[in-house]
Specification:
Elements (H helix, E strand, L loop, with lengths): L14 H9 L2 H8 L7 E2 L30 E6 L5 E2 L2 E11 L5 E11 L11 E5 L11 H7 L7 H15 L3 E5 L11 H17 L11 E6 L1 H16 L5 E7 L5 H8 L6 H13 L11 H10 L4 H8 L17 H8 L12 E6 L8 H12 L4 E6 L4 H20 L8 E3 L1
Parallel strand pairs: 6-7, 6-8, 8-9, 9-10, 10-11, 11-12
Antiparallel strand pairs: 1-3, 2-4, 4-5, 5-7
């Protein structure tokens, strides 16, 4: 029998926030922000351009980086969202983190706090929003895109996901958005993404101007590539950042089996996603020589993808047929690709806080069977999970349709309303 989760504080998204989610474009961020109160001022024509992270000194690592604690703040500066003055405070914070192998590295987080005072019980909540950074070029870093706006070109942070941050801010929560792929843009690197996202939260909580502090209730949220980062961080959180005061998290459209996702997209309009994933695996496991496993034209596509954001890769490779040069007829069964992908797959640890998960049975980009298996694994280990197998067709619409319920779920967790234990499919 299905047990249905009914949030106790489900409030419908209002006016411009609903438009923001439906429009999925930069302009709706400005419209949505009007509901936060105060005026919106656009930057004048000819405003100073924003440098990419590879040439912006703010992103440079200090010489003594290894001497800092994880999450320690290295530098900060005031910023803006898309170059627009909104009724929120925005900062960029550089912090110390570690990569998947434990080597010191840096991260940059965008910290956003509404101007309106927090009148709830206890400290203002903080939501860590893992935007689907989905980039292998440094210009895809979320902090750069959120600051540069249209100058940054086509990418998830600008074109699709920033309006969701406006909805989080409308609830008067603080938001932290970390460049969790790190300065080398290590897409689908489980350890890198988890460490950087968790250290970004540590930095936001410690950042005095944000007025949050260690008692601030925390939640995490992400979809698709952002869900991969969210699940990774929550799997590793108990041992990497056990002091963080998490109340719950939500992840949808989860890439639960990287190799299966590669196989599913082959030959479709979404085949750029497999090309992008293969390029990412090549960066993470150069010793595997991933390009040698596919045909010559795909090798060239992988090389090009290594400097691009995912939208460009999808556009450039629609309906490409990737030919596996091994004896396998299925990319997911290629032993080299499968081994490199398995190192990054979720399910290697169990989250310690309640989870809301969702995935479409009609997803056109990522298969649902591996998500079912991941949730079953979590549940068998005693995790607390609410799982919705939605019938909303396709990958992006399934994300949007679920957001009111997702934010109501997070609102309950942040308010301290206990989640009934066990696993429930709705």
């Amino acid at each position: 029998m299905r047990k249905i989760y009914r949030p106790q504080h489900l409030s419908a998204l209002r006016g411009p926030y609903r438009s923001a989610l439906q429009g999925l474009c930069t302009a709706t961020v400005v419209v949505a922000a009007l509901s936060l109160g105060g005026a919106v001022h656009t930057e004048p024509a000819g405003a100073e351009s924003v440098s990419t992270p590879d040439v912006d000194p703010f992103y440079a690592a200090p010489a003594d980086l290894g001497g800092y604690a994880n999450g320690a703040i290295l530098r900060s500066r005031e910023s803006a969202l898309f170059g627009v003055a909104l009724p929120i405070k925005v900062w960029q914070v550089q912090y110390k983190s570690t990569d998947a192998e434990g080597r010191p590295t840096t991260g940059v987080a965008t910290v956003l706090v509404p101007d309106a005072p927090w009148n709830g019980a206890g400290p203002r909540p903080l939501v860590s929003y893992q935007i689907a950074e989905d980039g292998l070029g440094i210009q895809c870093a979320s902090s750069y895109v959120l600051r540069a706006g249209l100058q940054a070109g086509t990418n998830n942070a600008q074109d699709q996901e920033a309006p969701i941050a406006a909805v989080l801010l409308q609830r008067n929560w603080a938001v932290v958005i970390s460049d969790y792929e790190g300065p080398q843009e290590r897409f689908i690197d489980r350890g890198q993404e988890a460490h950087s996202a968790l250290d970004g939260i540590r930095a936001a909580v410690a950042f005095a101007p944000a007025q949050l502090g260690p008692r601030a209730p925390l939640a995490a949220f992400g979809y698709s590539g952002g869900a991969f980062a969210t699940v990774s961080m929550m799997e590793l959180q108990p041992r990497y950042a056990p002091e963080l005061n998490f109340t719950g998290f939500a992840a949808g459209g989860i890439p639960a089996d990287v190799a299966a996702g590669i196989a599913m997209g082959n030959g479709t309009k979404n085949v750029g996603l497999p090309v992008f994933a293969l390029a990412a695996l090549d960066r993470l496991s150069p010793e595997s020589n991933i390009p040698a496993q596919v045909d010559e034209s795909t090798r060239a596509a992988i090389a090009a993808a290594g400097q691009q954001c995912v939208q460009q890769v999808v556009t450039d490779n629609a309906f490409r047929q990737i030919t596996d040069v091994s004896e396998s007829a299925d990319l997911a069964r290629n032993p080299v690709i499968a081994a490199a992908a398995a190192e990054q797959n979720p399910g290697q640890s169990i989250p310690a806080v309640p989870m809301y998960a969702w995935h479409s049975t009609l997803d056109d980009a990522l298969p649902i069977a591996p998500v079912d298996a991941l949730i079953d694994k979590y549940c068998a280990a005693g995790a607390t999970v609410t799982y919705h197998r939605t019938d909303v067709p396709q990958h992006a619409p399934a994300a949007i349709a679920e957001l009111p319920t997702v934010f109501a779920y997070l609102s309950d967790r942040l308010a301290g309303i206990p989640q009934r234990g066990g696993c429930h499919t709705v």
